[in-house]
Amino acid sequence: MIKGLWLSVLFVSILISGSQIREGRAQAARLGSETGLELPRYVSLGSSRARLRAGPGTQYSIEWVYVTPGIPLEIIAEYGNWRKVRDWSSAQGWMYHALLSGRRTAIVAPWQTDPVPLKHEPSDKAATTAILSPGVKGSLERCDGSWCRISIKGDAWHGYVSQAKLWGVYPGEALE
């Protein structure tokens, strides 16, 4: 009886250790190999002209050229000074790290055709300040996990957009 109990405790102990090792590997896999920052993560385009390449180097073909600074991009991998990024349309490729900025931006509901209200306060019941077309780009000022304060066209428009209607911030993510 005692021997059987001891074997059961040993077996459970081995299972727990294996689980902790897998958790540690999963945690490590979520950090960029070059920066140590979380992957994936959002950034924005810091340049007015940036090439998206098929691989991490100038010898790889150019797949796309971005000409609008400030668009949000999601970093999904790192290799040396190169970052694999994905945009709101799911296009992905490699971009040189110096072309990216840590400034957070978002695109309003690029997956839909209906306009999105810009609210005066973070509530569905708040007054609507403006109606935003899908695809409008704005700077994220802060997010509480449900609503984001966003500025459009510099400081021309400020207000709140439901976080679920933005590409460039994760569901439930808080930004200060």
Order of helices and strands: HEEEEEEEEEEEEEEE
Mean pLDDT, to the nearest integer, reads 86
Tally the beta strands: 15
Oligomer: single chain
- Main beta sheet: 6 strands, antiparallel
pLDDT below 50 for ≥5 consecutive residues: which ranges? 2-28
Q: How far is it from the N-terminal to the C-terminal residue, by CA? A: 57 Å
The general outline is: elongated
Strand content: 35-45%
Task: Sum up the structure in keywords.
elongated, 176 residues, 6-stranded antiparallel beta sheet, 1 helix, alpha+beta, 5-stranded antiparallel beta sheet, disordered N terminus, 16% helix
Secondary-structure map with pairings?
Blueprint: H1 2-29, E1 41-45, E2 50-53, E3 62-66, E4 72-79, E5 82-86, E6 92-96, E7 100-101, E8 105-108, E9 116-119, E10 128-132, E11 137-144, E12 147-152, E13 157-162, E14 166-167, E15 174-175
Antiparallel strand pairs: 1-4, 1-7, 2-3, 4-5, 5-6, 8-11, 8-14, 9-10, 11-12, 11-15, 12-13
Protein described:
- The chain has one helix spanning 2-29, and strands at residues 41-45, 50-53, 62-66, 72-79, 82-86, 92-96, 100-101, 105-108, 116-119, 128-132, 137-144, 147-152, 157-162, 166-167, 174-175.
- Residues 2-28 have low confidence and may be disordered.
- It has 176 residues and is α+β, with helices and mostly antiparallel strands.
- The strands form 4 sheets. Strands 8, 11, 12, 13, 14 and 15 form a 6-stranded antiparallel sheet that branches.
- Strand 2 and strand 3 (62-66) form a beta hairpin.
- The longest helix has 28 residues, at 2-29.
- The chain contains 1 helix and 15 strands.
